[in-house]
Amino acid sequence: MPVVTYRVTLIPGDGIGPELADAAVTVLEATGIAFVWERVEAGEAMLERHGTPLPDEVLESIRRNRVALKGPITTPVGGGFRSVNVTLRQALDLYANLRPARSIPGVDSRYQDVDLVIVRENTEDLYGGIEHMVGTDAAESIKIITRHASMRIARYAFEYAVKNGRRKVTAVHKANIMKLSDGLFLECCRTVAQDYEGRVEFEDRIVDNMCMQLVQKPELYDVLVLPNLYGDIVSDLAAGLVGGLGVAPGANIGTQAAVFEPVHGSAPKYAGMDIADPTALILSGALMLRHLGEVDAADRVEGATRGVISDGTARPRDLGGTAGTREFARVIADRVAGATVPAAG
User: Fold this and answer.
1) Does residue 77 share a domain with residue 162?
2) Could you confirm whether 168 is annotated as catalytic?
3) pLDDT digit string (tens) for 244-253?
4) Is 104 a member of any domain?
5) Catalytically annotated residue among 56, 113, 208, 296
6) Catalytic residue among 127, 156, 160, 196
């Protein structure tokens, strides 16, 4: 059989991003799958060179290859350029943000056996960036919720549940207060749920109550589907249940392209020190492999990563170990290549 070669856009990112990208590439290539990495740059450095943090060649590369692996990119707080992440998602219509949160044995956490999947609508809501000053002492942001976007993200959540053997989808909203916008989102989720009756359980929760419920009893929940802003907040909360953003992978998926990235930021003060934890980007690479249909390779990458952490063979500093970024990646890559993946819960 001919060997399949995957062309993947590689966006190293800012800060610790390039180190993490190199680590993830090391692990993914250890699967034996053939990759051609098309490296393009985005972020703060590009603003100085091109006048934009997201040059056209980045979008062109992703459209051409249809899949990208991306390191973290700095987003200025309270000013500066608009988030590259948000711009990418909107420009490429990457409407589904997928953020699994699964406990890893050996990672310090107050919880055990958490297994949640956050499905976040990725293109509208307050992240549309429609805001303006009202005079000099007030600012206004406009929240957009559409039937089209709500229906398709609800459909994505239920289809994900069916394909992955998940038992329940919970729609998260604030429809008790925002009766029109969040009310429309909830209505759409209820409509889609009818098509899966008898296959996937459905319920809904108000977002503030949902946060409390996750802290008290996360084992009651499975797949959560949320509008953009709530999805961002709740996915970080879910990451906190399993050890933090350093172990939280992410995927942005549309009909024409998909971009895989860690949830955490670029941590520029640690750049170049070989101490950053690449776990989240490596696990994002495993999500990418599943998207490409390489399920066995994805299982090996995820199993090796979880196994190396849980049995203590190597751990980065944020997980209580001493391994540097490159060393940790090499240990995982060796296990992937040897296919000696122990059970890791």
Assistant:
1) no
2) no
3) 999 999 999 9
4) no
5) 208
6) 127
Q: How far apart are CA 74 and CA 165, in angstroms?
A: 36
pLDDT for residue 75 is more than 80: no
The 3-class secondary structure across 306-318, one letter per residue, is HHHHHCCCCCEHH
Q: Are 229 and 125 in contact (CB under 8 A)?
A: yes
- Domain span including residue 44: 1-97+246-345
Q: In this structure, is residue 41 part of a structural domain?
A: yes
Split into its structural domains, the chain has a count of: 2
Closest C-alpha among 144, 116, 300, 292 to residue 213 = 116
CA dist 133 and 141 (Å) reads 9
Query: Which residue is catalytic, options 125, 174, 182, 277?
Result: 174
Q: How confident is the model at residue 48 (pLDDT cuts 50, 70, 90)?
A: confident
- Which residues, at least 6 apart from 271, have a Cβ–Cβ distance to it below 8 Å? 14, 15, 16, 18, 19
Residue 111 known to be catalytic? no
Mean pLDDT estimate for the chain: 93
208 is catalytic: yes
Q: Is the domain of 114 the same as that of 232?
A: yes
> Can you give the pTM of this predicted structure?
0.93
The phi and psi torsions of 326 (rounded to 5 degrees) equal -65, -45
* pLDDT score for 81: 54
24/159 Cα distance (integer angstroms):
28
Q: Catalytic: which of 14, 182, 232, 277?
A: 232
Range in 73-77, 302-306, 339-343 the model is least confident about: 339-343
Q: Indicate if the pLDDT at residue 312 is higher than 80.
A: yes
190 and 294 in a common domain: no
Catalytic (active site) residue 174: yes
